[in-house]
Amino acid sequence: MQDGYGVYLGLDVGKGNHHAVGLSPDGKRLHDAALPNTEVRLRQLFDKLARHGTVLVVVDQPASIGALPVAVARACGHQVAYLPGLAMRRIADLHPGAAKTDARDAYVIADAARTLPHTLRRVDVGDEAMAELEVLVGFDDDFAGEATRVSNRIRGLLTQIHPALERVLGPKVHHKAVLELLSRCGGPVGLRKAGRRKLASIATVHAPRMGDRLVEQIMAALDEQTVTVPGTQAAETILPRLADSLRDVLRQRDQVAGEVERMLDAHPLAPVLTSMPGIGVRTAARILLEVGDGTAFPTPGHLAAYAGLAPVTRRSGSSIRGEHPPRGGNKNLKRAFFLAAFAALADPVSRAYYDRKRAEGKRHNAALMPRPPSLRRPVRHAPRQDPLPTTPHQPRPRLTKPIGTPPENPC
């Protein structure tokens, strides 16, 4: 029996109904039908297929609409794997036909699990804390996108009606003092009407050191333009609402960050990550979600390739050869490493490295991105070193068995 599994169950997940295809190790169809997205029907199918042997459940989406099948499969003791969408589409091209149906996709998933196990990705075992952390980080990403949208709207309005004022307030639009001024006074007309003294009394409350200087810059910018651009009056009514909206989004994002930090405090790898230059709460949470405990990567090079940071070798005969930047990889992890490397420039050692590479003629990104090896190595080796004990009330879950080793089935 190949890899010890008796059934390879491919699930093309959906909102109301999935499509399930079960294959035996020799490719015989054991099941091929639609499957309602309910716990009862999922358990019935898993129990039925378990009579043929240990079941490997493979999904095309482990989160959102695929979360319930993954949870039920784990509860029944079956191991769960994930086939990425791009890999599934490329494998589907190798099968005859060009149809795109749920039944065909489910068969492709099951057949890939049977014949191409190296294409599968592990779905981390049920760590409730990590699942909650993923929800919070996703919520924070939504707030970040909303904050960017509203701030761009504010800057766009200011650029339209008063470019000089935007040059002063735009770069500081997330600052509490700027948001308070826009909320209480509005645009250029309201700011000029409020006067220097009132603006200073508002700004210094939220920016004691920068307040007076900010007001001077605002008054100087207002004096640069004497004409009134059409649309200014409407912008005067919209800007306070946008400022209030942005302030609320930033406040909620701070609250989510506090909840993420409290959850990170209970994770044994969080202190290892946050102790490294450039890694804060949000970056550490993203790295943990994408990497897990790191045991899936035998070497730091494997982690670099997974993140899309390792150079790709291209050779063909004697005319084409060289190392090229990768175009793939885990985009979220690559972005986390990039942000960490950029923030690490405040560290003297990281800044010295960056300056040395810039002096060698490298561009900004090329000088910046080699820094992540210094981050990848501690992340990769931290699980083996196990520098911090696991909290007694929440033992750290690990997937100690590889995909090819079937677990026991309690169902």
Helix-strand blueprint:
Blueprint: E1 7-12, E2 17-23, E3 29-36, H1 39-50, E4 55-59, H2 67-75, E5 79-82, H3 85-93, H4 102-115, E6 121-122, H5 128-161, H6 163-169, H7 176-185, H8 188-206, H9 211-223, H10 232-265, H11 270-274, H12 281-291, H13 300-307, E7 312-316, E8 320-324, H14 331-343, H15 348-359, H16 364-368, H17 372-385
Parallel strand pairs: 1-4, 4-5
Antiparallel strand pairs: 1-2, 2-3, 5-6, 7-8
What would your notes on this structure say?
The chain has 411 residues and is α/β, with parallel strands linked by helices. The protein folds into 3 domains: 122 residues, Ribonuclease H-like superfamily/Ribonuclease H (Nucleotidyltransferase, domain 5), CATH 3.30.420; 135 residues, Orthogonal Bundle (Helix Hairpins); 116 residues, no CATH class. 56% of the residues lie in helices and 10% in strands. The chain contains 17 helices and 8 strands. The strands form 2 sheets. Strands 3-2-1-4-5-6 form a 6-stranded mixed sheet. α2 links the parallel β4 and β5. α7 runs antiparallel to α8 and α12 runs antiparallel to α14. The C terminus is likely disordered.
